[in-house]
Amino acid sequence: MDKTTSGWVNGFLGVLIFSGSLPATRVAVADFDPVFLTVARAAIAGALALVLLLAFREKWPKPGELVSLVVVALGVVVGFPLLTALALKHVTSAHSIVFVGLLPLATASFAVLRGGERPRPAFWLFSGLGSLLVAGFALLQGVTAAPVGDLLMLGAIIVCGLGYAEGAKLSRTLGGWQVISWALVLSLPVMVVLALATMPPSFAGTGQSAWLGLAYVSVFSMLIGFVFWYRGLAQGGIAAVGQLQLLQPFFGLVLAAGLLGEAVSGSMVAVTAAVVACVAGAKRFAS
């Protein structure tokens, strides 16, 4: 398997894992405070990352890499989880799909600004069309009017796109799983203190589904998904592989159908096919 193909495979696996993030967060914030959920998931993932780094005796990041790691931490360890958790107190996970549809464009934009990539004009055409298809499909499913939630989700997309692009750029020298691991470890002391400070006095009213949601976003969304995602972005190109995020909302719907027995409509299949075509077009004109 060549490097570019490997990048798309790794990126696909990362997106598949991330697909359960918003539904899991939605379930978790039903019983957990959004701030506690954010710092707790980062603390749990950070502890696991520290064990991995020690077990493999990874070298410390260079001083010049620390600034990028801080940007990654602020974007994907703190910013996106916190803003989405707060937003999902106001909007449904279905509503958030509108904004997830903008994430590939945000990632591609930061790939140009921070990663030095220069996709061809046709790339932006396919990327924009794919984003419009995802957003349009989500709007047709029915969304609620919640300006606060919308602003929080928009902020989440911006900081996430920056964190993705910055982490992918750093992955070329530091390594994919090492980037997210070091970002988590840098955040760990603060996250542990904040987790203890925001911990509720009792977990008596916390349901099993909320605990499962916390476990998913801590282990899969916060750590394992990024192992594949950053490797994929570094190998296949940030702007190009980032377009795979257009499939994330539909993966979430497929998971809902398989696990929850929800119906999959013909329109979903049609739009998914069109989005796949946009991703293929973006891949072709990415460089």
UniProtKB/TrEMBL annotation:
It is a multi-pass membrane protein. Residues 7-130, 149-279 form the EamA domain. The keyword Lipoprotein does not apply. Keywords: Membrane, Transmembrane, Transmembrane helix. It comes from the Bacteria. Belongs to the EamA transporter family. The chain crosses the membrane at residues 7-29, 35-54, 66-88, 94-113, 122-140, 146-165, 177-198, 210-230, 237-257, 263-282. GO terms for cellular component: membrane. PANTHER family: EAMA DOMAIN-CONTAINING PROTEIN, INNER MEMBRANE TRANSPORTER. The lineage of its organism: Bacteria, Pseudomonadati, Pseudomonadota, Alphaproteobacteria, Hyphomicrobiales. This is Transporter. It is found in: Membrane. It comes from Ciceribacter naphthalenivorans.
